[in-house]
Amino acid sequence: MLDLHHLEQLDDLFHSMGGGKRMFSRLPACEGIQLRTVVALPEADGQQRRRSIQIGNLSRQFAYVRMRSHRLLCPLFRAQSDEFWGYITNGGTEGNIYGLYLGRELYPNGVTYFSRDTHYSVSKGVHLLGLEHCVVRSESNGEMSYEDLAQQATRARHRPAVVVANIGTTMKEGKDDARRVRAVLRDIGINDVCVHSDAALCGPYAPLNPKPVFDFA
What we know:
Blueprint: H1 4-20, E1 53-55, E2 58-60, H2 62-76, H3 92-106, E3 111-115, H4 120-129, E4 133-136, H5 146-154, E5 161-166, H6 178-187, E6 193-198
Parallel strand pairs: 3-4, 3-5, 5-6
Antiparallel strand pairs: 1-2
């Protein structure tokens, strides 16, 4: 249950977002959405407004929300308090493309691997970024075939691997085991590995699983 302090922060955020509506184009279907119908906020007179954080020419409090989100989510995924950073993307597509970009910057000579059940934004991302890539077979449940991953990666065993692991595929909710991905690649001699987990679908409740298929530990 949110306390008054958190409700005031949400009120500040929605007020700031409302002021920026004139400066953004959006899908017509989103035009009539009233955020206050989603979260009931207090309407106290003289409410103290938190000073907005300036990002470019726009007044936003998303930087504050981002920091609070990190503090909430990172411990759930066993990330060390001094070893995480990031930002809130506009959606899963941007998150996947940025994850691929980070993999490319970390391993410019790497090969990117992802399964056939992976979201189409990854195929878009590898073309936008000019990444050499390999599509791995999927099992009937949507999970990556680790046997096929090993066979495909063996052909480039002397190069780093950038792997997109699905934490819930779009159609089947298939979940790739990030630990097993690393173990498979290690067994064939690939130690330089970057795993990007696409957790847009099942990531929010993954920490509730007694044995999550991915974390930052």
